[in-house]
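Why do we care about 3D structure at all? Because function follows from shape, and shape follows, mostly, from sequence. That is the central idea of this module. The next example makes it concrete: a single protein chain, its amino acid sequence, and then its structure expressed as tokens.
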Amino acid sequence: MSTSASSLYSSTLSSIAGNVNDAFSGKTSGIDVGTIVSELMEVERQPETVWQNEQTTINSQVTALTSMNTQLTALYNDVNSLNDFDGAFSQMTSASSDDAIVSVSADSTATAGTHTVVVSNLATTSSAYSGYISSGSSLAGAVINVAYGSPNDPGSTNTITIPSTDTTLAQAVSSINSGGYGVTASQMTDTNGSRLVLTSNTSGAAGNLTISSSSTSFTSAAGVDAQLTVDGVPVDSSSNTISNAIAGVTLSLGSADPNTSVLISVQPDTTQASTAIQQFVTDYNSLVGAINTQYTIDPTTGSEGVLAGDSMVRSLQSQLLGLASTTTTAAGPYINLQSMGIEMQNDGTLQINSSTLSTALSSDYSDVQKFFQSTSPVGWGQAVGTQLQQMTDPTVGLVSADITGLNQTSQGLTDEINDFETQMTSVQDQLTTQYDNLDTLLQEYPMQLQEIAAQLSSLPGATSTSSSSSS
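And the structure:
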């Protein structure tokens, strides 16, 4: 029996004895059955208190482990970003020496390099306008024939019929725009009147408009293709946005200047790569720090964390240190994290030497990328990613399995407590009956004494004996 349980037991016995003595001596009319039974039940429930305290500890352990599991999953995601062929290391950055002439963007499929672009001509869009339409007349019922591309060999045609109910030019414009044709209509008004304007929905020569109508004449302005050279190779484009001249690169033409060569640069995005590495280090240090905290003495309580005695946490700590020290032969001079400036500290956390890492990314980007992504031989990212996948498995992963075991233990304690409570109900009933009976006896005791005294006083010689004693 623990010291606290022994003290409670002694205190309860003393209280009950005092309660009974007060009733026996007549100080009270009887014993306080409810209080006595409550005090006795508190003693009887001592095993349950131990189980509940165990559950409280387990709940704290599960909370701490759940947090660690979340951190471990974040670390796994970080490594996946580093070894993903479409992740941080595949991103490219691009620049133009003259954005006013041509701006540039690059996706992950682009190849690093430089290119020279000369823009001779921008793509324009064909349009056509009608003669003036007086306010007293309309295009109601008019038929407008539109051909796109070469007048002699159009790529497509439209026949636009204005409904007879469209008695205003605005109505005709609305009708054309809702018809799904290859032109967009608008109304232009000046001091001489209003015109119907049709603008091709296709830029460049392919969208050139040839329009005829019996209701009004049209004057057309031809569209032209963009003309440029990329590394000396002529490129013709119907649009000023060109995505097929350089693989993975989109050129956006802003102006034409045949006398200016624009230098286009496409390079790996070292900023995104550096950010991804920093995120890994940050999340790694958070997890290692959470583990270290479990073995730190709390100055207030004088005790370690709730997981200090959990062997799984020690195993997790060891595996994390192993992950950070993993080596590879896949990337030339970069055999481990330390070789690129990611150095381990005495407490197991990592620290980035920014200068070393920056030099590695700017000078040996390809080798750094291989360090994280190589599959043959296996790079650091691939190897560590595989290990973290196993560690974060929701069924057999280190932390998940530990949480499952603790939850099972807690459920077992809950079952014991429920069974124990059933027993306690019976014990409480028995104690209540016993002390109710005792209370009855104690309350009957004074009356029994009076009856005995009366019987004694009625015995022969009881009065004379009393008188003789007086004289």
